């Protein structure tokens, strides 16, 4: 079954696995990895993620004396991911249009399992392999954050978690999460609005002055959630704002966060009543740190060679999103983000081309083969 990547992917996509509810697919993958001869363990990170399954870590012994090769994907999906009904339409696989497909990231899982299975079935000598399937990636890289990285002995790794097969993402930004609570003063909106301080207005003025969107080629920021108020006839006394900032450059990240804070402080200063003063609480947290792998590094050259074996010229670049590679890389293991073929992910229009699934599995197979030969 694991050799037919299309059938295997469809079987995985049919298993519901929204973030924090990965138990069913975790059980299936543990059984499949053990059937392939791996030593498999599951951690208890679910106690920290408030989920029902832990990260799956599998180790395959090798016949060639080289450092282990790490292959990684996450097993959770975004919402709506319950009742997924994958179907083949022409040359692609999609859902029925009411849910996501789950190619993000079950395409990576399927390609890893099938690539390993083909090498094992062919009896090809290979180096030791480490496979990490993480949980709760979509809600903050939680599985990777709580995984005990000291278990990893690999010299380099590959996270299968981006779009086009052949894309190699060699860098990703740092991200700071921002949470702001603005406190105003409630009052009757029709009888005595002048006695109130409108927290929504303060929030609007602050947001209007914040640097948002594409700041430059390596820096972005966004306000994604705003909530507050209880009725139209009450001057709102509280608003909660949540957003983020990302950059490949730590100085730029610090500056954009400082500018956001300054916009907030300036708006607060403009709304001070005679009997009540507006105030705000600003909280900032680093979610993950940036990484950048040189194009001439051995792990990049290995990936390029493996792609060439399947007739693809690699396309290298940097990305704008975070992934498990940020967390694993911070632990000292260089990790490239590889394309799997997933398209329009995080929407009910998500799909993957059958040929991309097949090419992705062949890419993994060649990674394993060449790893043993090049001793990367």
List its traits.
18 strands; Aminopeptidase; 376 residues; 2 domains; Alpha-Beta Plaits; alpha+beta
Question: TL;DR of this structure?
Answer:
The chain has 10 helices and 18 strands. It has helices at residues 5-13, 23-35, 46-49, 103-122, 142-146, 199-209, 250-269, 298-309, 324-330, 354-374, and strands at residues 39-42, 56-60, 69-74, 87-89, 92-94, 129-134, 156-162, 167-172, 174-183, 213-216, 219-228, 238-247, 279-288, 291-292, 315-318, 335-339, 342-343, 351-353. It is elongated and about 80 Å long.
Descriptive account of the structure:
The chain is an alpha+beta fold. It contains ten helices and 18 strands. The chain has two domains: 5-172 and 290-374, Zn peptidases (Aminopeptidase); 177-288, 2-Layer Sandwich (Alpha-Beta Plaits). Strands 1, 2, 3, 6, 7, 8, 14, 15 and 16 form a nine-stranded mixed beta sheet that branches. Strands 10-11-12-9-13 form a five-stranded antiparallel beta sheet. It has a four-stranded antiparallel beta sheet with strand order 4-5-18-17. Helix 1 runs antiparallel to helix 4 and helix 8 packs across helix 10 (354-374). The model has no long low-confidence stretch (mean pLDDT 96).
């Amino acid at each position: 079954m694991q050799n037919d990547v299309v059938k295997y992917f469809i079987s995985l996509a049919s298993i519901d696995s929204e973030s924090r509810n990965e138990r069913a697919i975790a059980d299936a993958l543990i059984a499949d990895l053990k059937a392939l001869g791996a030593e498999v363990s599951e951690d208890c990170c679910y106690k920290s993620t408030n989920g029902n399954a832990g990260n799956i870590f599998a180790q395959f012994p090798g016949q060639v004396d080289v450092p282990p090769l790490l292959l990684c994907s996450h097993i959770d999906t975004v919402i709506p991911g319950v009742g997924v009904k994958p179907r083949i339409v022409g040359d692609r696989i999609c859902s029925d249009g009411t849910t996501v497909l789950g190619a993000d990231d079950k395409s990576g899982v399927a390609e890893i399992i099938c690539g390993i299975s083909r090498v094992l079935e062919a009896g090809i000598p290979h180096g030791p392999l480490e496979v990490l399937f993480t949980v709760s990636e979509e809600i903050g890289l939680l599985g990777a954050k709580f995984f005990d990285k000291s278990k990893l002995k690999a010299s380099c790794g590959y996270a299968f978690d981006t779009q086009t097969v052949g894309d190699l993402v060699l860098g990703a930004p740092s991200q700071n999460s921002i949470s702001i609570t603005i406190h105003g003063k409630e009052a009757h909106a029709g009888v005595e609005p002048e006695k109130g301080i409108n927290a929504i207005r303060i929030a609007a003025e602050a947001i209007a002055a914040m640097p948002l969107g594409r700041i430059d080629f390596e820096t972005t920021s966004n306000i994604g959630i705003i909530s507050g108020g209880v009725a139209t006839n009450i001057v709102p006394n509280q608003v909660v704002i949540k957003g983020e900032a990302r950059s490949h450059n730590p100085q730029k990240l610090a500056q954009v966060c400082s500018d956001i804070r300054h916009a907030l402080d300036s708006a607060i200063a403009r709304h001070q009543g005679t009997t009540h003063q507006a105030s705000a609480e600003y909280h900032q947290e680093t979610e993950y740190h940036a990484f950048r792998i040189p194009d001439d590094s051995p792990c990049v050259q290995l990936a390029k060679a493996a792609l060439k074996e399947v007739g693809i010229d690699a396309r290298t670049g940097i990305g704008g999103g975070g992934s498990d590679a940020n967390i694993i890389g911070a632990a000292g293991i260089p990790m490239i983000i590889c394309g799997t073929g997933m398209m329009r992910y995080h929407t009910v229009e998500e799909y993957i081309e059958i040929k991309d699934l097949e090419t992705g599995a062949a890419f993994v197979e060649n990674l394993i083969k060449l790893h043993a030969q090049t001793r990367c």
